[in-house]
Amino acid sequence: MSTELAAREEPFLKNFSDPEAVARYAEGPRRFVPGLDALHRMTGLLLAESAPDDAKVLVLGAGGGSEIRALAETHPGWSFVGVDPAAEMLRLAERTLGPLMDRVTLVEGYIDDAPAGPFDAATCLLTLHFLAAVERERTVREIHARLRPGAPFVAAHASFPQGADERDTWLDRYAAYPIASGADPEQVQRARAAVAASLQSFSPEQDEAILRAGGFANVSLFYAAFTWRGWIANA
Asked: Which DSSP symbol is given to 112?
């Protein structure tokens, strides 16, 4: 990992390496990401349109395990390789997956540490927004290189208008949603400040361009919820 990437990820990876913060992780995404369970369900449906019943699926950003659990429970023939840089988050994934771990291999690291494949499908949920544009495109290209021709790829992450007069409005909406869902307002405002300062969020148009530059075709938006977007594409 480059020094630049490490510096940009540090505020977030520090939390992902803190056992107390990780223990509270499961409640966070569901409060901040509208329809997270539905996003997982849609991801499985989209992958299954072209992935075989015995698909081998690459999951980049697998820490926590909730995404793999949702896919494994609904597709009993699939196996998974989950990659994540945070060891503590991978331990949480093991606890979350329980007996499903017999179909899962977890790898501590980044995309370069993932097996060469070829995989029948891939996902990258709530992860690419940690990467700057050059590193994001490289990561997408490395995912593409590990997929069979035509294999489906689902990506979802923070993606919203970045104009000078728009960004703050969308970040305010990002914060308003968890507060309306019962989250502590002070904690939410700290999260908003961290996102504003460190998260590598781009416009949906730039995100789609990165997916195409990384080698993917048929890039289609399927999920949009406040500051979050999700796409289905094919290798």
From this structure: G
CA atoms within 13 A of residue 56's CA, in its CB half-sphere:
11
What's the whole-model pTM score? Answer: 0.90
How far from chain centre, in Å, is Cα 17? 17
Cα–Cα nearest to 228, from 168, 171, 143, 165: 171
The mean pLDDT values, 10 residues at a time, for the chain of 235 residues are: 41 53 58 94 98 98 94 98 93 95 97 96 96 96 98 97 93 96 92 89 97 98 97 98
Sign of CA dihedral 14, 15, 21, 23: negative
Alpha-carbon distance of 63 to 28, in angstroms, equals 13
